[in-house]
Amino acid sequence: MNLPGAPFLAYRGESLYLEDCALDALAERFGTPLYVYSQAAMLAALAPYQRALAGRDHLICYAMKANSNLAVLQTFARAGCGFDIVSGGELARVLAVGVSADRVVFSGVGKTREEMRLALQAGVKCFNVESEAELEVLSAMAVQEGRTARISLRVNPDVDAGTHPYISTGLKANKFGVAHERAVALYRRAAGLPGLEVVGIDCHIGSQITDVAPYLDALDRVLDLVEAIEAEGIRLHHLDLGGGLGITYTDEAPPTADVLISALLQRLDARGHGHRMVMFEPGRSLVGNAGVLLTEVLYLKPGEEKNFCIVDAAMNDLMRPAMYEATMGIVPTRLHNASPVTYDVVGPVCESGDWLGRDRALAVQPGARLAILSAGAYGMTMASNYNTRGRAAEVLVIGDQAHLVREREQPAELFRNERLLP
Ligand SMILES: Cc1ncc(COP(=O)(O)O)c(C=O)c1O
Ligand SMILES: N[C@@H](CCCC[NH3+])C(=O)O
């Protein structure tokens, strides 16, 4: 059985291992639900990006919204990455890890004045600005703070990334970026505003993209703009092509990062832009298949139409199935010879949408543990406390060493900030 996450995630005999740690033993030691990540898998996912970009002026800015655990950030910081952030909270996280702000780009359509102020004071490398209104506020904030905001405009190239409508971002109908027809005029405006320094251009067309073609279309549109903008005498130093490369959850076959990056660099060279600094903002493709969510089977509930396998993880721990009807692999941490039964794997939360997998053939008994695969990206970062459920613990494994990198949330922490009436 070749699991997404192999070779770092694999059965040895009957037991499922992540690197050299048996997952059943980790569940026993740290409890469930439990997120477990492999550092080697993250670095292996980064390597093809680094290989393809070697010898170029470049910066890989890990999109930390995918997984923002401090130990994960530390892993990528030590490997030489920069970071793509989308909030003051994410800024605080990268600074807590000791990342220098000049390796940080700040994306997002709704940056608040306070977030801008903090990012200006920290000295972020670039603000990826998404509207004219934001440009004006950022200019005013920079003047007020006595700083210069380095900026790039996120252009919306209007290409279809061929992905789920909720995670496509590069179409006109999406809220992201500025229309490419308006981009030149906005660059002119940006160049004339005080407190701003134009340094680049960026785009990000969506997530879980499994094809090179939309990236090449977007790049062509961005390069057309670069040429038009520079013809106005506005110099663009870098080109940030965003993230979005997909991973294999079940049967998707996305290009590898080196195939994608090489194709883009080739196009860049062919169009005479090979000298430019390039940046990418991968999230999912660096961490998705480096992590699993472990959960314990609580009850089996046979029914007339459906059999339910009720587990201790729920939609609040892993929102992707409920939110996007995402299909993620589910396998037992110990293989059994018993014949499998088809179940819907559901959590304890009081919603019919609280399911983690549908129609899964599983040979399990209460007390057995399951691993939900490809859960390293947009798992823990999208978790909530719905039903006053504490968020899961997180463990990062390095070889045979398991590091608890986030403790399980306890009930009292969940209402710590609440107040009784007098
Ligand atoms: C601006 C921006 N950059 C990077 C990413 C990372 O995307 P992905 O995790 O699909 O690589 C996102 C999320 O889609 C994003 O909105
Ligand atoms: N959260 C989404 C992806 C959104 C990417 C962020 N722009 C997912 O789990 O697939």
UniProtKB/TrEMBL annotation:
Active site, renumbered: C350
Alphabetically ordered keywords of this record: Amino-acid biosynthesis, Decarboxylase, Lyase, Lysine biosynthesis, Pyridoxal phosphate
Record: residues binding substrate: R284, R320, Y324, E351, Y378
GO molecular function annotation: diaminopimelate decarboxylase activity; pyridoxal phosphate binding
Residues annotated to bind pyridoxal 5'-phosphate: G244, E281, P282, G283, R284, Y378
Enzyme Commission number(s): 4.1.1.20
Family label: Belongs to the Orn/Lys/Arg decarboxylase class-II family. LysA subfamily.
Name of the featured protein: Diaminopimelate decarboxylase
